[in-house]
Structure formats: C-alpha cells, structure tokens
Amino acid sequence: MFFAAPPSRQIPSIFKDWHSDVTCVFARDPAARSLTEVLITYPGVHAIVLHRISHRLWKKEWKFSARFLSAFTRWFTNIDIHPGATIGKRFFIDHGACVVIGETAVVGNDVTMYHGVTLGGTSWNKGRRHPSIGNNVLIGAGAKILGAISIGDNVKVGANSVVMKDVPDCCTVIGIPGRVVQSKGVKIQNPRGIDLEIPALDPIGKAINCLIERLDVLENNSQKIVVVEKENCGDCEADGVCKGGE
Fold first, then answer.
1. Torsional class of 189: left (φ above 0), alpha (ψ -120 to 50), beta (otherwise)
2. How far, in whole angstroms, is CA 238 from its chain's centroid?
3. Helix or strand holding residue 220 (H, E)
C-alpha cells in the first residue's frame, strides 16, 4: 500500500513578503548600511510590514481590527495605507512621510514611492475609486495620482505631478495636469529642441514656447513676401521707401 509523502513545510507567505520588503531597500537606497538600521529606522518598512498584517485581517472580515492596526501604523509612521489596499511584492516607501494610499488602490510589484505621494479617489462611490499602479513604477515626491485610473508598467511619475488619466507602459509623466514627456526611451519635445516644459510645466515656459512658435510663423511668412522691383515703385503708395529712398 502506498502512502502519499507529507507535503514539504512551506514558509508562510507573509514572512516571504516581509523578507523581500526589507531586502529590496538595499538595492534602492544607497544610504542603507545594515539590516538593523533598516528594521529600526525606516518608517516606510514599518508601514508595509504592518500593512501586510492589517490587509490579511481586512480580508478575513476583521474590519475593526484591521482599521485599528492601520490607525496605529499611521500614528507610528506618518504613513496612511488603508487595510483594503492591495500592495505587491518588494514595495518601498523612501523617507516615508505623508504617503496616503486609498482603500481600492492596487500597487504592483517592485514599486518605489517617495514622501508625500497620494493614491487618492475622486468619487464618493463605493466601487473602485483609486488608482491601479503597474509593476516597476517609480513615483516622485509629492505626486498625486487620483481616480480609478491605471498606471502602466515601468512608468516614472515626476515629483509634484498630478495624474488623472491613464498612463501607458514605459512612459515618463510630469506636470499639472500630468502629461507624457517620454515614451519607450524617446523624449517628446518641440522641434527646436528647447524643453522648457519638461522641468516644470509653468505658464512662463508655455508662453515662451508660444512666442517661439509665433516667430516660426512670421519667418515662414516673411519668406513669401515678394520684393517690389524698383521700376514698379510708381505703382506703390510707399513711394520707394522700401528701397531706402533710391
């Protein structure tokens, strides 16, 4: 009679997630020196470690316990992650201050956030109202990603950007409102090679770009002007002024 071999002992997935959340810090923060330092002094690590627990409580319908632990985490780390938010593997919040992640937000694997990032909603409906973030995404300090939108894989979101529309894969998006300035390694810029809108989408930069475009139009029009020949000056009301009074 044959008996099935006992299943091999598996490490609980939460410990695997904690291990990857901690070890990924060394690849993304040059200031990280030791495991002890990361475990004790990194609020972003504290926040994600505690969120892994509160999220499991939330899924088991222990809503109050999940919210209580989430509230404690916010007090302890100054990072507010709703226990209903789904966070992928190797998630890292650098500097970890004033980050807010809403209930229906979905964050992929290998995502890095800096301080002041908000994954917020724009609706009071109870359905999906927060962003979905792809894999290998970098979100700069102070960026706001709002609404039930999707951010693709390998996307970079510039600091202080406000993104309210879907962003495809492999793009860089900056500004208020957010707009794509780089796609799959190809920089998107005006034909003259002046990227005034890339560092900051401010009104002055936009006005200067408008002036440059107007100059292009004027130069093109000037090339179409037909110079009046000297013998035809008698037919012109300028009385030969265009020829310097010759």
1. beta
2. 60
3. helix 203-222
* Residue 181 CB contacts under 8 Å (≥ 6 apart), including other chains: 172, 173, 174, 175, 187, 188, 189, 197, 198
Q: Token pair for residue 174?
A: 């900056």
Six-digit token pair at 50? 């505690």
Pairing of strands 179-183, 171-174: antiparallel
For residue 192, the model assigns a pLDDT of: 45
Ranges in the chain, pLDDT < 50 = 1-11, 191-200, 228, 245
Q: How many residues would you count in the chain?
A: 246
Report the distance separating Cα 47 and Cα 242, nearest Å: 75
Q: Is the pTM of this model over 0.90?
A: no
Say what the pLDDT of residue 143 is: 92
Domains and their CATH numbers in the chain:
13-188 (2.160.10.10), 193-246 (no CATH)
Cα distance between the two ends of the chain: 119
Q: In terms of Cα–Cα distance, which of 173, 98, 83, 96 is closest to 133? A: 173
Rounded-to-integer distance, Cα 83 and Cα 19, Å: 20
Q: Return d(Cα 115, Cα 98) in angstroms, integer.
A: 6
Pair of tokens at residue 202: 């401010």
SS3 87: strand
Q: How far, in Å, CA of 215 to CA of 35, rounded?
A: 59
Which pair of structure tokens corresponds to residue 68? 């209580």
pLDDT confidence of residue 7 = 45
Looking only at the bridges linking them, the beta strands covering 171-174 and 132-133 are unpaired
The reported pLDDT for the residue numbered 135 is 92
Are the beta carbons of 152 and 132 closer than 8 angstroms?
A: no
